[in-house]
Write a structure and sequence with these properties.
This protein is α/β, with parallel strands linked by helices. It contains 7 helices and 14 strands.
């Protein structure tokens, strides 16, 4: 576990040092972004990393006070507001660059994204977006939270939710979104007919989820906390977290579901770290999907032949 924003190396390196989530995630679009940084200059550090070291080094960068971490193939780029401690990353390539309007740059990279029938449209494109015939449009501003819809893990979860809905497993069912971020999965599930609750350890995520739910006219009670903050047991649990967090929470995640689970945020290279405890907790793994180095698991709590049906 590392003191970093729980972003998947989101294209927006998040700048707020008070975030203390576990890991950073790899970047999903080819541009860094972050909330506005202090004016003036930013110290840029480039480091070569192997796939195995990536999470650890990203964690160390966040711990060292990085404003943002951008994960690129074979390297990490981090920005610091303060004069860096050069000895801390001796192999790094440091440079100084003028501060930029990261928010504007990030917004320019975010476009509508489709997952099954769901199309996630950034709020600032709402006026120009023309919905398709069967489209379920979600208007979203991830703001300070993770979840614009572009990351492979979010997309795989959205697709799985759309499929569950098509197969009749969401309408009128109870669903918990553990690690709701922007609320994207909870809001999609609610729009697909589920009774939803959302939890996240990050207070920003709760505020952003509530704003986004209101924007989409759906009811998504959101509260701060982890899986233990979910009220009662639910028909479906969706949890897009991180490999180590999934491993750590495998028992309560499985126990909270009466039937289906959709779990992601698991890196392909370390999939067994999460899959083994999920199985041990009683999850029957129905399908493992992989995209861009990330895994999503679709499963059913063992012993539930009627699971979610
Ligand atoms: C990768 S984001 C997923 C956001 C969104 N659900 C999506 O699919 O795009 C992971 C989220 O999990 C939250 N998180 C991290 N550890 C957690 C934990 N132990 N319990 C609940 N939420 C957690 C983070 O704050 C973050 O908002």
């Amino acid at each position: 576990m590392y003191p970093s924003p729980a972003v998947y190396g989101s294209p927006r390196p998040r700048v707020s040092p008070r975030h203390t989530g576990p890991l950073s995630f790899p970047c999903l679009v080819d541009a860094p972004m972050c909330t506005p940084t202090p004016r003036g200059v930013t110290h840029r550090l480039e480091l070569d990393v192997t796939a195995q070291d990536r999470d650890t080094v990203a964690g160390a960068l966040w711990a060292a006070g990085a404003l943002g971490v951008w994960e690129r193939p074979g390297e990490l780029v981090a920005w610091f507001a303060q004069t860096p401690d050069l000895e801390r990353f001796p192999d790094g390539r440091w440079s100084v660059e003028p501060d930029r309007d990261w928010q504007a740059e990030w917004k320019a990279t975010i476009t509508p994204v489709a997952a099954g029938r769901i199309v996630v449209v950034p709020t600032w494109m709402a006026d120009t977006h023309e919905p398709g015939p069967d489209e379920l449009t979600l208007l979203l501003d991830p703001g300070r939270a993770f979840g614009s819809g572009h990351h492979a893990t979010t997309l795989m979860c959205l697709e799985a939710l759309d499929e569950l809905a098509r197969d009749g497993h969401l309408q009128g069912r109870q669903l918990a979104d553990v690690g709701c971020g922007s609320g994207i999965l909870a809001i999609a599930a609610a729009a697909l007919g589920a009774q939803v609750q959302a939890v996240d350890i990050d207070p920003d995520a709760i505020a952003v989820t509530q704003e986004n739910a209101a924007r989409n006219g759906v009811d998504v009670p959101a509260r701060r906390g982890s899986v233990d903050a979910v009220e009662g047991r639910v028909d479906v649990v969706v949890a897009n977290l991180l490999t180590d967090v999934v491993a750590e929470l495998s028992e309560p995640l499985v126990a909270t579901s009466r039937g289906r689970l959709v779990v992601s945020g698991i890196t392909t290279s370390r999939a067994e770290v999460a899959l083994t405890p999920l199985r041990a907790a009683g999850l029957r793994i129905d399908e493992v999907r992989e995209r861009d180095g990330w895994v999503a698991v679709l499963g059913t709590r063992s012993g539930r032949s009627d699971a979610g049906s």
